Amino acid sequence: MANVIVGVTGGIAAYKAAELVSLLGKQGHAVRCIMTDAAQQFITPLTLQTLSGNPVYTSLFQIQESPEWQVEHIGLARWADCMLIVPATADFIGKVAHGFADDLLSTCVMAATAPVFFAPAMNDQMYANPLVQRNIAILRDAGYGFIDPVEGNLACGTSGKGKMASPQQIAAVLETLRKQDLQGMRIVVTAGPTREAVDPVRYITNHSSGKMGYAIARQAANRGADVVLVSGPSSQAVPANVTVVPVQSARDMFAAVQEQYSSADVVIKAAAVADYRPKTAAAQKIKKSDGDMVLELERNPDILAWLGEHKQNQILMGFAAETNDVQQNALGKLQRKHLDFIAANDVTQQHSGFGKDTNQITVYGADGSVTALPVLAKEDAADRLLDLVLQLYQARNK
Ligand code: PMT
After folding, report:
1. Exposure b/e, 9-37, CB count within 10 A at least 16 = b
2. Annotation says 156 is catalytic
3. At what angle do helices 90-97 and 104-111 cross, to 10 degrees?
């Protein structure tokens, strides 16, 4: 069980911090809470003290009141195995991203050597603001973790992405911290769409955002794997401890994956690769004329089929994005491409597929197994897929 600091900043979702503290306590973790001044406008230290069974820290200058710590923020930071900032306001995210440390919580975050996770909660427009997104990207680049907010009704009366993840989702990061069960495995993940050039300013692509593949890469790295992410164009933040190989077209992706293949233990192909590309990409911008235009397409290489043909000991997991006959189509791909698993998602479902934060996946195994997962956040779905891969890896390497 872990020593967890729950840092509470000033947003209405602060009340959910109380539920989180209670949940962590029930799970057997030792919890200490730090509250900013603004957090205390929303809930009281007494609430968190009662639920955590520990004093609540509210001030950098509390040293006389609790002589337990020589230098409070350093002592607390050393004690923690993990810090959870719940909720993380735009203000607090911006402050840490720019290196400010002017209260107990920000100094603790700065002094922490343990993993720190932020659970943002705010109005959807605030969350979408490029400044907030830039600050989040700065923190991700620096190795801080994020438990992304979800879409839902917000306290300000609107609805959108900004609602804090549930206490259960936030508590789940401790699971991934504990588990370093993928250590020693080299996992290649592909993500995002490909872009097939028509001319210098136009291309053919699809709606893949990269979220699914990035979630797999992130969770695999959190669990100790050595991860290479071959990514088509995507605005997703680069996960910590993941080597990213950016690509544009299917042929670029093919070359990048081929280069990684011999040293990979596992390849997970979440990318939505274009099956066709324009036969010729015009060197100059194509000018319009009065008549119609016909674009001749030719086949792209099927990367996954090639991987299946050249498989040695690698575990291969493909994805099947289907709009109809999901099981039949997925099983066809499993067999034709010599895969160990195919993760089928019905992309017509409201909570699944392209661009969504959640996915509902059924995994078919080459051994005939069927694992039907419920609708899950893509991070959680990623973990379940990695669990299946790990089981097979362990069975093969007994
Ligand atoms: O990126 P998100 O917005 O999060 O969306 C996630 C997703 C819907 C893209 C993802 O969950 C998904 O289903 N990815 C696979 C999409 C796809 O291209 O499916 P497919 O049925 O066309 O291809 C089957 C498999 O073959 C895939 O693993 C694909 O990567 C691979 N393939 C396909 C064509 C090709 N030329 N080369 C390939 O390797």
Report:
1. bbbbbbebbbbbbbbbbeeebbbbbbbbe
2. yes
3. 50
**E strand or H helix that includes residue 278:** strand 276-278
Phi and psi (nearest 5°) for 85?
-100, 110
**What is the per-residue pLDDT for 64?**
44
Residue 61 burial class via C-beta count within 10 angstroms: exposed 0-12, middle 13-18, buried 19 and up: exposed
pLDDT per residue as tens digits for the range 259-270: 999 999 999 999
pLDDT in tens, 221-274: 989 999 999 999 999 988 878 999 999 999 999 999 999 999 999 999 999 999
Tokens read off for 256: 């990048």
Burial classification of residue 375, based on how many CB atoms lie within 10 Å of its CB (0-12 exposed, 13-18 middle, 19 or more buried): middle
Q: What gap in Å lies between CA 123 and CA 161, rounded to an integer?
A: 8
Enumerate domains of the chain plus CATH numbers.
Answer: 3-176 (3.40.50.1950), 186-396 (3.40.50.10300)
Q: Determine which of 62-76, 173-187, 266-280 has the lowest per-residue pLDDT on average.
A: 62-76
Catalytic residue among 33, 82, 108, 156: 156
* Ligand 1 geometric centre to CA of 397 (Å): 28
Distance CA(255)–CA(267), nearest Å, equals 14
Pocket of ligand 1 (CB under 6 A): 208-212, 250, 269-273, 275, 300, 302-304, 318-321, 333, 345, 347, 353-355
Q: Residues 194-202: what's their mean pLDDT?
A: 98
Place of tokens 């957090």: 39
**N- to C-terminal Cα distance for the chain?**
28
Q: DSSP label at 286?
A: P
> pLDDT averaged over the chain?
93
Model pLDDT, residue 352: 95
Gyration radius of the chain's alpha carbons: 23
The per-type count for the chain, helices as H runs and strands as E runs, is: 14, 22
User: For residues 200 and 283, what is the distance between their CA atoms, to the nearest angstrom?
Assistant: 7
* pLDDT bucket at 99, cuts 50 / 70 / 90: very high
| Closest ligand 1 atom number to CA of residue 320 | 21
Nearest residue to 104 via CA among 38, 23, 189, 158: 38
Instruction: Give, using CA atoms, the residue closest to atom 35 of ligand 1.
Output: 302
Q: Which residues make beta-bridge pairs with 188?
A: 228, 267
Tell me, letter by letter, the H, E, C secondary structure of 325-343: CHHHHHHHHHHHCCCCEEE
Q: 39 C-alpha to center of ligand 1: Å?
A: 43
Q: Which residue has the higher pLDDT, 146 or 65?
A: 146
